[in-house]
Amino acid sequence: MPAKGKHRRPKSQRFTRSIAVAGTGGAALALPLMGATGAHAATSASTPSTVSAASGKVATAATASASASGKAATSASAAAGKTAAKTYSVRAGDSLSKIADEQSVSGGWKKLYSDNREAVGKDPALIHPGLKLTIGKKAATSSGTTKSSGEASKSSKSSKASDSSAKTAAEPTAKADDTAASSSSSGYTLPVEGATIGTGYKVAGSMWSSGYHTGVDFVVPTGTTIKSVAAGTVVSAGWGGAYGNQVVIQHADGQYSQYAHLSSLSVSAGQTVTEGQQLGLSGATGNVTGPHLHFEIRTTPDYGSDVDPVAYLRSHGVTVG
Fold first, then answer.
1. How much is the pTM?
2. Does residue 174 fall inside a structural domain?
3. Domain count of the chain?
4. What DSSP line would sit under 170-193, residue for residue?
5. CB neighbour list of residue 50: distance below 8 Å, 6 or more residues apart
6. Where are the beta strands (DSSP E) in the chain?
7. Whole domain around residue 277: which residue ranges?
8. Which of 163, 185, 266, 318 is least surrounded by CB atoms within 10 angstroms?
9. Is the pLDDT score of 256 beyond 90?
């Protein structure tokens, strides 16, 4: 029995080792499968990362597109803000030049006049209190689309053609008026057309503080256009006490012209005017008995330095009736 037991033990041990080897061999045989499985698992694990990276690129592209759209919208909004127009109501004493300066109109009074030609009319100096003017560019179309360069060029040519037509239409009237033609060539003109003189210069009377009339009165109804007799610079424009609304202009020869009792003013102090430019409209403001234009020529801008206004105009080639 003991011998058999010894004999069986070694076999048993060899069998165990065989099983162990077999087991080891099985493990070895299983290793490729495990490696393949690991490789497959690694491949599967890498797939979400690839998809995630692609998704990130798509998201980045979408963000960039949204950013570009936002910038485009901001640019469009800014452009719309720049082209937005506003309405200005003309006040007493205003002129296109003054309004253009105060409202910072790009292009000055000429641009302002061009934008409001229909409202102002053919004479850019003829504006009156309460007139509505558009400041800034008008919208090209109701949809807010911007004109192409070709359309803008066409619009510019149309505007020039309109100006040319207006000028051509105005020329026959100017040529038909011999007095206007002769006065323009001399650089001087009458302060008001077609008016007769009422009270003359130096007519005595207690109603005047100096004891006599310091100018001449042109009898005209309220609302008649009053013009500068020559080019010059406005030294004052506003209320003048007994003179009512008045304008005083200094001319190149050092003399000053005064226009009084106006119902409204079209110029302001410091403004440069040309011969025949509108200064305002006649009226009956101040110390008057009826509407007329009180006109003076002075050696200084102040009261009491008057000279004969009729003689002054005639010395510059202007016929005074």
1. 0.46
2. no
3. 2
4. HHHHHHH-HHHHHHHHHT---SST
5. none
6. 86-89, 132-135, 196-197, 216-219, 225-227, 232-239, 245-251, 256-265, 272-273, 278-282, 293-298, 306-307
7. 196-315
8. 185
9. yes
